[in-house]
Design brief:
Blueprint lengths: L2 H4 L9 H12 L4 H5 L5 E4 L16 E13 L6 E8 L2 E7 L3 H7 L5 E6 L1 E4 L2 E5 L2 E4 H6 L5 E4 L4 H5 L4 H15 L9 H7 L4 H9 L4 H33 L10 H10 L6 H13 L7 E6 L5 H14 L3 E5 L3 H14 L7 E4 L5 H13 L4 E4 L13 E7 L6 H8 L8 E6 L5 H7 L4 E5 L10 E6 L3 H13 L3 E5 L7 H18 L5 E4 L5 H12 L5 E4 L12 E6 L7 H8 L10 E6 L5 H12 L3 H12 L7 H4 L14 H17 L6 H12 L12
Parallel strand pairs: 4-7, 10-15, 10-16, 11-13, 11-14, 12-13, 14-15, 17-22, 18-20, 18-21, 19-20, 21-22
Antiparallel strand pairs: 1-9, 2-3, 2-5, 3-4, 5-8, 6-7
Bound molecules: adenosine-5'-diphosphate and magnesium ion.
Length: 700
């Protein structure tokens, strides 16, 4: 950036070394530019004053005028607080301070008019404002804020050193005055013209000093677009680079195995979505470039079958495949179902997991090295260094988010020169915007259609008062011969208590259903016992499975058609959806019953409502992202991409993101290395974002 913006923040009038230190340690603000790119998250209309009688606890920040009638100090030690009774002609409200009590008492005057600014809350049935900003009429007039005051996120530490939002606001205004005419453009002129963007200087100034809400749209559009555009430029150019660097095997034959399976063994018609995805994969593996494809599809949408057919394609072209699952149970399950699909075809399938005996292991290793084994299914054990393939051509990774980036990278290195094709499957739908960013360097396929004949799971939400009806319902279902899951939360912070809840639940369930066999499974169990319990449930020996979320991923018991989730308010949305995916796998109508306590936070209520309303994994993923924010969604933490968008919001700015991606792709197509004069500005722009987010894409 221009030198002006590179100046150290301590040189900004009003900052100095001490505050510079705090800005640096708390917000990573080191330079003028860093400050200018620290954006307000909302604005407060400082033209409006409220009457005290109009104020209620659900309001955001408000302003009012009035006088302090009296003070009172309450409590002792660290419970000590100062309260003031603040009045106008419509009523009174309580102001509260927990810190700097002495200072407030000394400086605030009784019966003098103040402008009070803060966020109302409710405590003990009274409306109050904690740590309000107080200023006199004169102070208010002198202040340099815009009519709409930007509100900035600050930390406790900053607040205690007089660097609250208001102080940041003031610094921004000082900086803007100094910066006039000194902020250079960072996007190519033609792009600015094409999209009718406002200049960078204009956008930055408007964001910090907003005088007219109409200007905000253009300013924030410009800044959001640029932010997303630069991310997309990076992702797409890395993708491009990788595609050039890593050659891939060519699977050009659709041969005997694929065709025989398709024509003679496939027990049903592929869904249209499966056909489309198969086409996408075949295009990928037939062009000398390594495939990196993410296959998304709800539980039960038939991803495994797509993987199987891709593996047959590999065999037809003389390559081995491996299929990696996140748990032993799942690996076994895949082994069984794939073996069953391929029964009668002459294909060598191996199973390798942590519990494979040493003697068997030796044989498996040998068969792999000779190339006798054509498909190897297993867990992490697959990626141990001792496992050597003759010619690994395809790696399928199921339920990807359980595998770290590093583990995936290890697979790449199994071949010296040409890496195998990679197909990653996930049943945790990722919102489109997130996929474009976090997995922006992968190609994405979606199976958005369930095989025909599936009955959507019916979902209900009940409170404790319906417990008896639920029990009656379970009795009936069990009499009809179906099996039931009862799931309890298990969250690490209160693990002991949760374990007790689970065990109590188990005992209680046995009492309630005295003639029925019950299994229990949780993560703390010895693996052997866990396997046994799972096995008993799978074979129908036990009819009820009391469990924690260990059953979340992939376990397949088609005869289980009822899922009861206890304390459902404690589960995340995508977790609930995964759990629900355990039922509805057979021909019977299935049910998911969400039990919750009466007291629900707004967010939990929305989660439960969403579950009752829809079975659509993508809709649920979008809602999940809205409720939790994009940084919390599964997979983003491991993705390795620095998730520090400053102004764009992946949950809301999908359209801008799409535009940014399209524009980035268009520019890279003409000028992949950004070498023209016109695009040189972009190269500089990319270099400037110094984050270490370059490594990830070479392995993800
Ligand atoms: P996923 O891995 O996506 O959760 P699976 O591949 O395990 O789904 O498929 C779920 C069930 O649906 C399996 O029993 C599978 O055999 C079956 N299935 C897959 N594709 C189809 C199809 N096109 N028509 C009917 N049943 C299918
Ligand atoms: Mg699956």
């Amino acid at each position: 950036m221009s030198e002006f913006l590179d100046q150290y923040i301590k040189f900004l009038p009003g900052v100095g070394p001490a505050k510079a230190e705090i800005l640096n340690s708390e917000l990573k603000i080191k330079t003028f530019g860093d400050l200018l790119f620290y954006f307000p998250y909302k604005y407060i209309d400082r033209t409006k004053f409220y009457k005290i009688s109009e104020i209620h606890a659900q309001m955001s920040y408000i302003q009012m005028k009035g006088v302090i009638r009296s003070f009172e100090t309450i409590g002792k030690g660290n419970k000590e607080r100062l309260t003031a009774c603040f009045c106008d002609d419509s009523g009174n409200i309580e102001l509260v301070w927990f810190r700097s009590i002495k200072w407030q008492k000394k400086n605030l005057r009784l019966n003098k008019e103040y402008i009070v600014f803060g966020k109302p809350g409710e405590f003990n049935g009274r409306i109050s404002i904690v740590h309000p900003e107080m200023e006199t009429e004169e102070e208010n007039k002198l202040k340099p804020v815009g009519l709409f005051q930007g509100y900035y996120i600050t930390t406790e530490k900053m607040k205690s050193r007089s660097l609250n939002s208001k102080a940041i606001n003031k610094l921004q205004l000082t900086l803007i005055n100094l910066a006039k005419g000194k902020i250079k453009e960072t996007l190519p002129e033609p792009l600015i013209k094409k999209l009718k963007l406002v200049s960078l200087e204009n956008a930055l100034f408007t964001i910090h000093k907003l005088e007219n809400t109409n200007d905000l749209k253009n300013a924030s559009f410009r800044l959001k677009f640029e932010e997303l555009f630069i991310v997309q430029l990076k992702i797409l150019s890395l993708k491009h680079k990788r595609e050039n660097k890593f050659k891939g095997y060519k699977f050009e034959h659709v041969g005997y195995n694929f065709n025989t399976f398709y024509n003679n063994f496939l027990p049903f018609e592929l869904t249209n979505a499966q056909k489309r995805v198969m086409k996408e994969i075949r295009r990928d593996v037939n062009c000398n470039i390594q495939m990196n494809r993410l296959l998304q599809g709800d539980v039960g949408s038939g991803k495994t079958l797509v993987a199987l057919m891709t593996m047959l394609l590999a065999i037809d072209n003389g390559f081995q495949s491996c299929f990696m699952a996140p748990t032993e149970i799942l690996a076994q399950q895949h082994f069984q179902s794939i073996s069953k699909f391929l029964q009668g075809m002459n294909i060598e399938i191996g199973l390798l997991t942590g519990s494979t005996k040493a003697s068997e292991r030796k044989i498996i290793h040998k068969n792999l090295e000779y190339g006798k084994t054509q498909i190897l299914i297993g867990t992490h054990a697959l990626i141990e260094d001792t496992v050597i393939f003759k010619n690994l051509g395809l790696v399928v990774i199921d339920e990807q988010h359980r595998f770290g980036v590093a583990q995936r990278a290890k697979l790449w290195q199994k071949n010296d020169f040409i890496p195998p094709h990679i197909l990653i499957m996930t049943a945790t739908p990722i919102p489109r915007t997130l996929a474009m960013t976090v997995y922006g360097d992968l190609n994405i396929s979606v199976i958005d259609e369930l095989p025909p004949g599936r009955k959507p799971v019916q979902t209900w939400h009940f409170f404790e008062n319906k417990r008896n009806q639920v029990l009656n319902f379970l009795h009936k279902q069990l009499e009809n011969g179906t099996q039931v899951y009862i799931v309890y939360p298990l969250i690490s912070e209160s693990e002991k208590m949760d374990l007790k809840n689970l065990e109590d639940g188990y005992i209680h369930t046995k009492e309630l259903f005295p003639n029925i066999e019950v299994s229990m499974v949780h993560g703390r169990m010895k693996p052997n016992l866990k396997e046994k319990m799972m096995h008993n449930f799978k074979t129908g020996k036990t009819k009820i499975m009391v469990a924690t979320t260990v059953i979340e991923v992939g376990v397949d018991v088609p005869n289980a058609s009822v899922m009861v989730i206890e304390s459902a308010e404690r589960f995340g949305l995508s977790q609930l959806h995964q759990l629900r995916g355990r039922v509805g796998r057979g021909a019977e109508q299935s049910y998911c019953i969400l039990m919750s306590s009466y007291k629900l936070s707004n967010e939990s209520r929305k989660r439960l409502e969403t579950m009752v309303r829809t079975n659509d994994g993508f809709e649920i993923a979008e809602m999940d992202m809205k409720l939790r924010g994009p940084g919390e969604i599964d997979g983003t933490q491991q993705s390795g991409i620095g998730f520090d968008l400053k102004i764009a919001n992946l949950a809301k700015d999908g359209k801008i993101l799409q535009l940014a991606r399209d524009e980035a792709a268009a520019i890279l197509e003409k000028d992949p290395k950004l070498l023209t004069d016109e695009n040189n500005i972009l190269l500089k722009n990319i270099m400037r974002t110094k984050q270490a987010d370059f490594e990830w894409s070479s392995i993800s």
